[in-house]
Amino acid sequence: MSGLLNKIDSPADLRRLPRQDLAAVAVELRDFVLQTVSQTGGHLGSNLGTVELTVALHYVFNTPHDRIVWDVGHQTYPHKILTGRRDRMHTLRQLGGIGGFPRRDESEYDTFGTAHSSTSISAAYGMAVAAKLKGEDRKSVAVIGDGAMSAGMAFEALNNAGVSHEGVSPDILVVLNDNDMSISPPVGALNKYLARLMSGNFYEAARQGAKAVLKNAPPLFELARRFEEHAKGMVVPGTIFEEFGFNYVGPIDGHDLDALIPTLENLRAKKGSQFLHVVTKKGYGYKLAEADPVKYHAASSKFNPAEGFPPSKPGKPTFTQVFGQWLCDMAEADERLVGITPAMREGSGMVEFHKRFPKRYHDVGIAEQHAVTFAAGLACEGLKPVVAIYSTFLQRGYDQLIHDVALQNLPVVFALDRGGLVGADGATHAGVYDIAYVRCIPNCSMLTPSDENECRQALTTAFRQDHPVAVRYPRGAGVGAAIESALTAWPWGKGVVREHGSRIAILAFGTLLHPALAAGQRLGATVVDMRFVKPLDTELVLELARTHDALVTVEEGCTMGGAGSAVLECLAEAGVTEPVLLLGLPDRFIEHGDAAMLLSMCGLDAAGIETAILQRFGGRPTLAAVNS
User: Fold this and answer.
1) In Å, how far are 40, 179, 312, 477 from 315, measured between CA atoms?
2) Of 375, 365, 476, 331, which Cα lies nearest the Cα of 117?
């Protein structure tokens, strides 16, 4: 790297450059993003698309005094590079390195953590209100894009932020980064001219002057107001945002610095609620990503930018792929099945289902709450909805899970992908809490398959129930278990003893069965594939407590309220005082890094499980002391 970018260690350095140098900065910045992600992996297309917008925002606004909230946070690599983290980008998403999303504890320029989408307007509005209350002259900017505008929370925030409170409208600018052309007319000279005109002082003065003249003649004032709205609506899609109380400007080309900078300067000088609509292209400047923005959304490993992503090598099927095949097979067998995803078609393995059963496939956008209640409505009419959703994203539909599904005992299947740790995406995307938050809800069941074949069987078992059932499975591939073609269901609520031993019984929930087996063999312990968290196989648990000196539970989830807690509750209810060791994820957020390394650090590999058991119950020769 050479040239201008190497001299920028903060946005203040950027603001000292003459405007004519910014285009060169953007070229260098885009190349740096591409080269970085080609070595570290991470989100690519969305970051290539925000280069000019990032440069313009930091050039116009006095960051970090002015607040910028990025949403979704995976489009912030250019922002990180310009805000003093250029020399650490080689550590992106690695253990001890910088995160792939904004983090308040990483930089003062990261004003709000936004790894889950559609939160920026709410947060930026809170910051704008706080500035008013504190008497501080600062601007708050929410940059929302990459599908985040489809969520209801964004519109809830618009509804609130566009209305003055006690006669005062806090200064907030919402920048819609529209990178899929879904609501945009063609971008060109006319739109650029209109954007600059509508954001400028002449337009605002004329507008306010007309209001002053006409306000004493209400019929004429109303007629003029409607004419203005409809005139703007004929050439720009801004009427809906105007109705929320925002001054709408755009759409403009988000890759044209000569359009972005003067428009942002005009809007920065304005008071109240402003809305700027910019159109960008995902993957902009990298032809391979422009041609296939879905494929180049993110890089899972290193690649040569000149050649693009290498062809995928055949290997063990992932749990996501197992789910996708099961979904198609079950849909073939039962025409009542309807598949639902909140904007995660590829991530949830539903591409083939979409192709084969388009009428029964529903992508509801980034709207997890709606996805859950939509499924409830389908179930009310005798259909069998399957909601494919990441564990961490179902958290956003928790009230709907309780009120709309469980309370009415509707047969909805929740396929919870990314259960457990997820590696480089870190704490925001880890499915750590699903066991605890599902099992405490009446009518809901939770299944935890231990391998790929069990995943298929667990999904079949869940689908054949007449109440809500969640099946949680991890990211990535399993152990390579042979997958049966039949749609076989398990005996309901029954675990399976995999290894017979003595003294200690290890009760494994999910894929940690395999390190538990390795540890159990070294210890001579009994090892059980519990399969069900709820209903728990209480008969088996009590039998194991009767025939062993101690129990150990193992789960890739939080121990508080988790599967181990269910075992303790079972023993307590039966009046059994058996020693129990709970092994799971600790009471802290687990950082990003290699997933296997993180599990090892948490003591959930074979060696860690063995060590924890020996530390708790002593050496191998005898465990009789635990009952003394």
Assistant:
1) 22, 33, 9, 9
2) 365
Q: Domain ranges for the chain, please list them.
A: 5-288, 319-472, 496-627
Asked whether the domain spanning 496-627 has the same topology as the one spanning 5-288, the reply is yes
- Cα 57 to chain center, whole Å? 25
Q: Cβ distance 75 to 26 under 8 Å?
A: no
- Round to whole Å and give the CA distance between 592 and 605: 17
Give percent helix, percent strand, percent coil of the chain, each to the nearest 5.
45, 15, 40
Contact present, 209 and 232 (Cβ < 8 Å): no
Residue-wise DSSP of 96-110 = TS--SS--TTT-TT-
Write out the two tokens for 199.
Answer: 């954001």
Residues designated catalytic = 282, 368, 396
The CATH number of 496-627 is: 3.40.50.920
CA 624 from centre of chain: 48
Pairing of strands 445-447, 532-534: antiparallel
Are 348 and 304 in contact, with CB atoms under 8 Å apart? no
Amino acid symbol at 533 = V
Please report, in angstroms and rounded to a whole number, the separation of the first and last CA atoms in the chain.
Answer: 68
CATH numeric code, 5-288: 3.40.50.970
Whether 201 shows a pLDDT value over 60: the answer reads no
CB atoms within 10 A of CB 11: 24
* Fold category of 319-472 in CATH: Rossmann fold (3.40.50)
- 210 CB-contact burial (10 Å; exposed 0-12 / middle 13-18 / buried 19+): middle
**Binning pLDDT at 50, 70 and 90, where does residue 385 land?**
very high
**Digit-coded pLDDT (tens) for 446-482:** 999 999 999 999 999 999 999 999 999 999 998 999 9
Instruction: Using the structure block, give the residue that is written with the tokens 């390579």.
Output: 480
CA distance 343 to 27: 31
Q: Which residue has the higher pLDDT, 116 or 214?
A: 116
Rounded to an integer, what distance in angstroms lies between the CA atom of residue 404 and that of residue 377? 9
Distance (Å) of CA 249 to CA 174, 262, 491: 10, 12, 60
User: 623 or 245, which is more confident?
Assistant: 245
Closest CA to 247 of 209, 213, 201: 201
Long-range contact pairs involving 599-606 (C-beta distance under 8 Å, separation at least 24)? 599/421, 599/556, 604/512, 604/515, 604/554, 604/556, 605/515, 606/515, 606/516, 606/518, 606/519, 606/522
3-state secondary structure 279-291: ECCCCCCCHHHHH
Res. 494: pLDDT tops 90: yes
Other CB atoms within a 10 A radius of the CB of residue 1 amount to 11
pLDDT tens track for 531-563? 999 999 999 999 999 999 999 999 999 999 999
Q: Are 370 and 152 in contact (CB under 8 A)?
A: yes
Alpha-carbon distance of 175 to 485, in angstroms, equals: 49
Strands 42-43 and 298-299, by their bridges, are: antiparallel
